[in-house]
Amino acid sequence: MPSATNINPLNNHQKTVYTVTANCQDCYRCVRVCPVKAISVRNGQARIEDNFCIKCGTCVRECPQHAKTIRSSLDLVKDLLSSKRPVAVSVAPSFAAIFDGWRATRLPYALHKLGFKYVSETAEGALLVTEETLKNKNKGTICTACPAVVNYIEKYRPEYTDMLIPVVSPMVAHGKLLKKRHGKDCAVVFIGPCAAKKLEAVRPENADAIDAVLTFTELIQWLNEERIDLAACPEGNFESYGNIDKARLFPLQGGLLKTGSIDCDGTNADVMHISGANDVIGLFEIPPSDWKYSVVEPLFCSGGCINGPGISTDKNIFIRKQNVISYAEKSTISDRDIDRAISSRALFENENISLSAYEVDENRINQVFEATGKSDPKLQLNCGACGYESCRDNAIAVVKGMAEPEMCIPYMRRLAKQHSDRIIETTPNGVIILNNELQIMHMNPAFQKMFICNNGILGRHISYLLDTNGYEKLASGSVKLYEAIKSKNGKKYHELLYALPDESQYVGLYTDVTKIKFDDSQIDLIKNQTLEQAKELLDHQIKFSQEMAHYLGKSTARSEELVMRIMDLFEE
After folding, report:
1. CATH code of the region 428-541
2. Does residue 490 have a pLDDT over 90?
3. Is the pTM higher than 0.85?
4. Comparing C-alpha atoms, which of 50, 61, 62 is closest to residue 16?
5. On the CB side of 350, how many CA atoms lie within 13 Å of its CA?
6. SS3 of 318-331
């Protein structure tokens, strides 16, 4: 079984889809959305494992940092155009989704201006593929127009390989049509919305069809670079053959069935069209023995090719769909028919590189759980923050070298807490934590040593041990931070107190300053404390004089406490 460590190390420019590492922000979104978990994380960087990738381009569409990108073929196409060979362009019917209305009629001229000699619609190939698919229904039941679906079956559902209808995609069929029409020396460039087409074009069996593939994103970039404004281009027509009005609907879900005039309104028991990774993967979870369909048209991108990763637009997908339908309704039909005397036979492989769980030893999965503190099933939260559906899936990926334990957010939070706990336990400063009743919840070793106490006083009120003046001010809300230098049992200490409102707790930080010679600011702090407490004493006595006699006992005790504080401050 291949693993992340024995994959052929192709460089980024040879891969169909790759990571721009400088843009990757370690968010794991690509791991989360990748339908086949073909993205590994090493040293905090997400990488696309080419052998596992089916080139669906989901990560390209979903990455918020644009760290996933489709390999550019612009230089290759420009080289073809600068050669002496004639170059034809096959434009996928999904072009109408983004080049809508008047733009669709200007695009042929713009493509000629870029240097293409022949400008044609891939819908010609779609028409031919539909006819051949219907002829070959006895050889399979799964339509093969979508290369990402074909890649998925070849790699992950090999039991369905024999059920693929052996017909090439519209791109390949049209490439062969154009080369036959314009001569073998003619180069053919396909422009469409798909990343998987770039890999499909270089399959050995398709060597006589397509010379290069561009996405619509690359086309728009190229038009901008050449400063070709569609609004300034004259109207024109594609040099297309055949009655391709319905075939122009091919990029929509159910487009092939529509082209073939096969009714499928969603209630058919044996005919179905689906789109989107989840539906495609769910469909092929059906055991082949339970397969009841005579024809299934699956497209990997949700909504069809109009939502491919090579379309860079913010336009609503339903508007895109309307644009394609509108173009198909208004476009003309050629009086020249397509030449059907070409080979449309497709070949499929059985790669079977499934990453299923049974391939990993259970002991190694448990070792990962133990290392990440998740041996107890109750601690396996299955939160999905790492990008995997469950903690078990993540552990399997770790064993296979596809993931790192550090991708587990709860695990990293526990580590961070342990580190902070370690810091608190080893700091030379005293730390104490009280609850909202000013009862002692925790004392670190330095605090216990400073005030000669132990955990036996946990739960007691802080007044059992220290002056509570600062804590009472925090509790009353009169201050948010309290700082003082005080003394107890011949020891001077610096006290810094603050509240944790969300936790309803108070934290005290204590530093032994007995042997430290105070500077001016510290002396000022003591003076201010003394004055503050003296004022508090005066205010209390004034108030006392206004109170009734039954308060006498309580006021006397309070006065005594305040005087004792002042005496303590000057004790040393």
Report:
1. 3.30.450.20
2. no
3. no
4. 50
5. 7
6. HHHHHHHHHHHHHC
